[in-house]
Write a structure and sequence with these properties.
By secondary structure, the chain is mostly helical. The chain has helices at about 1-30, 40-55, 60-90, 100-130, 145-175, 185-190, 200-225, 235-240, 255-265, 270-275, 295-300, 310, 315, 325-345, 355-360, 360-365, 375, 385-400, 405-415. It binds iron/sulfur cluster (2 copies).
Length: about 450
């Protein structure tokens, strides 16, 4: 009974702290824009199965991708065992799901095998991060705290797996000593039971209880650390993939208000087809976090800082300042800075700083070629180019700022109806000497 009481209190504190953090994050979402409609649930479900659960994009780097996939699949299986532990802890039961029979055996056996596979994967990840200087993990945005954050989370996962295996070994030994049938199948742990040989039944029970508590407390600590870490993607990546942008990557979204103005200029009758009662535009493009869509913020929270986007970015590879990973990290950091002020003082709050310029420089933005390599490579379908485009839109439409070459293009479009410096009448001159009918 005492164990149940202590467990219930611990669970209550865990849920309370977690709810506080999530509530704070949700309150920031209130200040983002709603302009990312969701439809086509069937297609979204397919993308989620393919990209999130089958981890297809991760496999573009086969070895490290496979190890990452093992960790993800391992988490999914082990989650069931964690739910069982919570039920046992609350109601004083022992392996409550064992009534599932053969299904239980399969779940436990998978969890036992995955615990070892995840342990091996995490050790490889830690060695890579600490001893090998992988270029993908470097960059101006990767401060020492980013590396510490990653290593702490990996170490916690390692301890979770070791405590799970320890718990499995102790449970087999304890039930054997009591002459009971072991609940569940543990192929790897059964092989390791020798490590407790010579320990008394009481001693093994103490080991079992210790591993049980260490494991569940690590889960509770881990769950509450995640929202403050890049490993928040453990929660966010699957829903983020479900909420992916479904249009072809090359299709850059138009601005509705501008599209309508252009249509009106081309054909005034369109005015009657234009939706009535449209709100006037507060601001063209994105200057600060209250201009981004809720999906942009969701992307930023889901970003794993893996650097796959930056590793394929032609601008970054050719020495420009742009790093698509940094754009996501900047959104997260800026919302963390401005969010509390917005919540306290409302949308009008200003701290005289902004996402654009104080975090993301103009130089970074104009280095983007909108090639979409970053969005294609991102394992959780984050879309950077549309965001970069909106930041540029603010510069062009609100501040009349664009690099000299682009200003020439703008004036050519205005004067000649084309980006080139030629009159529209001269457009087909190049073909005049060819024997083709130009009529
Ligand atoms: S779209 Fe821009 S940010 Fe993304 S890879 Fe291409 S150049 Fe880099
Ligand atoms: S945006 Fe995507 S690819 Fe880039 S660091 Fe984040 S998760 Fe990785």
């Amino acid at each position: 009974m005492a164990k149940q009481l202590i467990f219930a209190l611990t669970l209550l504190v865990t849920i309370g702290v977690f709810a506080f953090t999530i509530n704070r994050i949700i309150s920031y979402f209130r200040f983002t824009k709603a302009n990312f409609p969701i439809g086509d649930l069937g297609k979204r479900f397919g993308v989620m199965i393919n990209v999130a659960f089958c981890q297809t994009k991760i496999f573009r780097k086969p070895i490290i991708g496979f190890l990452h996939a093992l960790v993800f699949w391992g988490f999914c299986v082990i989650l069931i065992g964690s739910i069982e532990m919570i039920i046992d802890g609350l109601f004083g039961t022992d392996k409550v799901l064992k009534s599932l029979g053969v299904v239980y055996d399969i779940i436990m056996a998978s969890g036992d095998i995955f615990a070892v596979l995840v342990t091996i994967s995490i050790i490889v990840f830690l060695i890579r991060r600490i001893f090998l200087h992988v270029r993908r993990f470097e960059g101006i945005e990767m401060k020492p705290i980013s590396h510490i954050d990653a290593n702490v989370a990996l170490t916690l996962i390692l301890l979770l797996m070791l405590s799970l295996t320890g718990m499995n070994i102790a449970t087999i030994d304890y039930q054997h000593l009591r002459g009971e049938e072991v609940a569940g199948v543990y192929p790897v742990s059964a092989w390791l039971t020798g490590i407790f040989s010579g320990v008394s039944m009481k001693g093994i029970y103490i080991w079992y209880e210790s591993f049980w508590w260490i494991h569940i407390l690590l889960i509770f600590i881990f769950a509450n650390l995640l929202p403050y870490s890049k490993h928040f993607h453990v929660f966010m990546s699957v829903p983020n993939v479900f909420l992916s942008r479904l249009e072809p990557l090359g299709k850059l979204p138009n601005m509705d208000h501008v599209t309508r103005e252009v249509k009106l200029m081309l054909d005034p009758n369109t005015a009657f087809a234009a939706p009535a009662g449209d709100e006037p535009v507060e601001r063209f493009g994105i200057k600060d976090v209250e201009d981004i869509s809720w999906k942009n913020y969701f992307d930023a929270l889901a970003c794993t800082e893996c650097g796959r986007c930056t590793a394929v970015c032609p601008a970054n590879l050719t020495g420009k300042k742009l790093s698509p990973r940094k754009i996501m990290m900047d959104i997260r950091a800026r919302m963390k800075e401005k969010g509390p002020g917005l919540v306290k003082h409302g949308r009008e709050y200003s701290d005289e700083r902004s996402l654009l310029k104080d975090y993301i420089s103009v130089e970074e933005l104009w280095a983007c070629t909108t090639c979409n390599a970053c969005a294609k490579e991102c394992p959780i379908n984050i879309n950077h180019p549309t965001l970069i485009l909106d930041l540029r839109r603010f510069l062009v439409m609100e501040e009349a700022y664009a690099p000299g070459e682009i200003k020439t293009v703008f004036s050519n479009i205005e004067n000649n109806g084309a980006p080139w410096q030629y009159s529209p009448e001269d457009r087909l001159q190049w073909a005049e000497k060819l024997e083709v009918n130009l009529k």
